[in-house]
């Protein structure tokens, strides 16, 4: 096994260190630190991350719903009910499914 002590001293090692950091203050790469700080602490950045996370969640749910519908023969509504998808999220998911 390669020495972990050495690992953190090369370029890739420093970048890997930065990826494992939970706080921007611990990141060596200034650009990465600035962006982590923005997306974790500034209102606009946090809102952006929330929107992106919701979009990803909706896309994943659309894929799951589509697969379940094909496997079970359930309707969209039946599948959403079984998956406990809130009614307010269903139109967005249905729209995503239509573009698949």
Characterization of the model:
The chain is mainly alpha-helical and 100 residues long. Helix content is 73%, strand content 0%. The radius of gyration is 20 Å and the shape is elongated.
Low-pLDDT runs of 5+ residues are: none
Number of helices: 6
Structural category is mainly alpha
- Beta-strand portion reads under 5%
Major sheet summary line: none
Percent in helix:
over 70%
Mean pLDDT: 91
Over all CA atoms, what is the radius of gyration?
Answer: 20 Å
Given the C-alpha coordinates, what overall shape results? Answer: elongated
Distance N to C terminus: 45 Å
Number of strands: 0
* SSE run: HHHHHH
Keywords:
73% helix; mainly alpha; 100 residues; single chain
List the helices and strands and how they pair.
Elements: H1 4-7, H2 11-20, H3 30-41, H4 43-72, H5 76-83, H6 90-98
Helix pairs in contact: 3-4, 4-5, 4-6
